[in-house]
Amino acid sequence: MFKKVLIANRGEIARRIIRTCKRLGIETVAIYSDADANSLHVKEATESFCIGKPPVTQSYLNIDSILDVAKQTGADAIHPGYGLLSENATFAKRVKDAGLTFIGPKFEVIQAMGSKIEARKTMQQAGVPIVQGVNEPIADTEAAAKIAEDIGYPVMLKASAGGGGIGMQLVNNEQELRKAFEGNQKRAQSFFGDGTMFIEKFIAEPHHIEVQVLADAFGNVIPVYERECSIQRRNQKVVEEAPSPFISEETRKKMLDAAVDAAKHIGYTNAGTIEFLVDSDQNFYFLEMNTRLQVEHPVTEEITGLDLVEQQLKMANGEKLAFTREDIQQKGHAIEVRIYAEHPVTFFPSPGKITKLVLPEGEGIRHEVAVETGNDVTPFYDPMIGKLIVFGTTREEACAKLADALRSYVVEGIQTNIPMLLETVTHEQFLAGSTTTKFVEEYYLPKTTAVGK
Amino acid sequence: MTIVKASMAGTVWKILVKEGEQVTAGQDVVILESMKMEIPIVAEEAGTVKRIMAAEGDFIDEANDLVEIG
After folding, report:
1. Residue limits of the Lipoyl-binding domain (chain B) (predicted)?
2. Residue A32's beta-bridge partner residues?
3. What ipTM was predicted for this assembly?
4. Are the beta carbons of A349 and B33 separated by less than 8 Å?
């Protein structure tokens, strides 16, 4: 096993990775920016190094500085966490070229899945259902109008390099499309340096359901069940759970099989997630593949008993998966909510000092938090300050436990989305297990104005 | 004369007006970036932009001055 792992990340996920490394007797190297000098991950790692100024381009995205620290400290592997450099193929290649192990898939695979158009083509070849649409870049508004006409409105305009909902827009008719195309193309160009656009048929009120896979270097691909993440705001997940309360056992099996086919077809290794949109008739369509650990991985851990970070380390170290698909049974029900430093109604960010933090405790309650009382939540990074995960023997029990925990979760000094989370998880539609990705929009949008970046 | 101030801490992402330009009440004059979000800052009153008091890329605190309108 690795002797020393550098964690190229911050916040709760850096702490999460350090925890598993410690348990396995692996030393850890934390990196941090000037803004994070007092962060918990900095204190908890074996060694910590400041790598630059607060803006991510001058610290957490600075590949040269990160590799310098890795060499200086003698780290033998780098865990990228999620976000930041985790799906950056150049970074994965530079880590490998420096003679270190990148804890994730091969850089070629990251690259292939990074283009949504390429990913569509590849999945089609693998026999995985994709949403009706085009597999070629669309040059301009005229071409887009013609394609949309062929597919039939409403359609989704999408940026091939997109993420977080940027460069993506629903259009209901030709007039809307003409208004929207160039703007989204420009946004994609400015955010991702790639303005390549494509179009997919719009699926009304879909569920977002994803399958977690583990793939070792010996060709074994094991699906470890699904997560439903239909509660989203600005196309970002807010509540995630496992198992999905929506799909039938038959659909579950088909989706797990499709995820295995997809991973095998692209030669995937390590932990990855295949995201699907599922319509009201339980037809499912490939959405995208995330070639990293997901924010919501704890719900899978809770229902399977696996430690996904441990599995990532072992697979990256060239070990064979020590179990079969049949060995992994799901038990009980787990739900995660993301605690964001933001206004609960407008979703505007709320940076500031946390003057008091009290985390609810109890059986089946798990926390993954980035902060403690006295910490500053700075404007430089994502607003997520923590995740609350509950486990119950049934979904009903988990929902009740979650509502209780949210009621006694105290964050003072900044605003958080806790009131919104509580409203959501006690809403009759959520309790019935029938919420779709439209839920937050329908329930909250008339009150909101925030634009995602 | 009024001073348009930052509604929260963040980085000045875009300054949308120039000195001497006429602005209307409710017009976006600056876009801040905070926590990976774009936060539009609006002029509360109509007038002429007298002075730009921040530069793109500057880190600013809540209530810092951004634009003077006269």
Report:
1. 1-70
2. A50
3. 0.79
4. no
Rounded Cα distance between A120 and A122, Å, is 6
The Cα A220–Cα A106 span in angstroms is 16
Instruction: Suggest the residue from A61, A234, A348 to mutate for an interface test with chain B (most B CBs closer than 10 A).
Output: A348
Question: What is the per-residue pLDDT across A261-285, written as a single tens digit (0 to 9) for each?
Answer: 999 999 999 999 999 999 999 999 9
Catalytically active residues of A are: 292
Q: What is the 3-state secondary structure (H, E, C) of A151-214?
A: HCCCEEEEECCCCCCCCCEEECCHHHHHHHHHHHHHHHHHHHCCCCEEEEECCCCCEEEEEEEE
> Which of A32-36, A219-223, A444-448 shows the lowest mean pLDDT across its residues?
A444-448
pLDDT of residue A444: 73
In the numeric block, the tokens 């089609």 are attached to A124
Give pLDDT tens digits for A394-411.
Answer: 999 999 999 999 999 999
Amino acid at A123: M
What six digits make up the tokens of B11?
């980085």
Query: pTM of this prediction?
Result: 0.92
> Does the CB of A453 have a partner CB in chain B at under 8 Å?
yes
